[in-house]
Design brief:
Layout lengths: L1 E4 L2 E4 L14 H5 L26 E10 L2 E7 L3 E5 L6 H12 L23 E9 L24 E4 L4 E3 L8 E13 L4 E8 L13 E2 L2 H7 L1 E4 L14 H9 L5 H12 L9 H16 L18 H7 L3 E4 L2 E4 L5 H5 L1 H15 L5 E5 L7 H14 L2 E5 L3 H4 L7 E3 L8
Parallel strand pairs: 5-16, 5-17, 12-15, 15-16
Antiparallel strand pairs: 1-2, 3-4, 3-6, 6-9, 7-8, 7-9, 9-10, 10-11, 13-14
Amino acid sequence: MQRTSAGVAHTFGDSAPTADSVSVGFVRQFLPLPLTPAVPPGDIPHKIIIRLGTSMRICQISILNYRGIQAAIIPIPAHCAILGPNNCGKSTIANAMSLLFSRDRWYQNISEYDFFGGNPDAASRFTIIGVITGLNTATQSPVEVPDLFEVENGAIPVWWSEKETILYHSNPPGDAELAYQIAVTGRYNEDLCEFETRKYFYDGPTDPFALDPYIPLPNKWLNEIGFYFIPNMRQWDTTLTFGSGQFLTLLRELTSIPSEQINAYKAEMRDPVNKIEEADAFKGLLTAVEGELQRFTLLPENSNIVYRSTQLSVRSILESLIPLVKDNNALIPLARQGAGFVSIQLLLILLEFTKQRGASGQNTIFLAEEPELHLQASLQRRLISRLRGASQQTIVTTHSQHVASMFKPSEVIYLTNNNGIV
């Protein structure tokens, strides 16, 4: 049984291929650009030495023409901190990973400014490619994961060398791990004046918007990866509210929406105990207005106006529920608490979510931009320790020395950006 990837035939046998020739990762063929190393010589080493064994993780991310990055190839350790000066591409890498690995309902819409140079035409494309390893195989053979490497409709097997940080398309060394690649490509459709993206199993350079064949990436594999992203532009005042789409998505995935109580609350709101329209000081004026409206046939007879705190739709009910902190007899909106208290909310929610996924044997990869925001040093270190302990892979971007100190030198990536080449 054979499949072809970038001109290399893969034979699925009883074990992974072995032997004598090496095909390096696609990007060096795909990007005809001089690539500078992600870590300056003599600076913090970025090569990885940690192996997660049977846990799925991202081991490499490659970016072409996305935002401020024209080309980048970055090995990703099992747990890592991404450092670098302002405008070097930390947030771009974080958002690129979110766009690639998040389920459709999680990632952001794209615009002109998601293309390198910010002025795309019909031929412009950005492409983000990720390599996933840690597939829980004993022999590093694709025959052990037949659903993923399904012939004609699945991923193409590759092998990742931790020691060399090289991707093998065939004949891997004995210590290489079975892996696969996924990609997302974006374009501007001039005819429809809209932006489009397509996700697919990567099998060498291709344009999924042209006539090139490609295999669409089913969402089930993204669910298996379990990638979650916390951006640095957090919506502090809506984190724990039911009006937050991210909060609702988490609740749905955990089957934790209090639907019975919400429906009961909706019924109570339809007929509350205290009715504003029956207040003596207000009732006379309201009755007069109702009479005028009925005379102009704008209000049906036997109808009257009532006041409720929402429109009584499920969405309006959810959006009206505001979290407050109850301290003895005081009730204070959560959004009015200290900046550190508010900023850590979503991180702690995702921590609990990660624990529950882990308890059910599910994979979790956690990416947080600047998790140190508004937190004192001791809390920063404590938070990173908990993140690392809860997920199969933790990736953070940071400017904090306290956050960086929680990672080994081999787990630190230092970025430089030379006119878009990272």
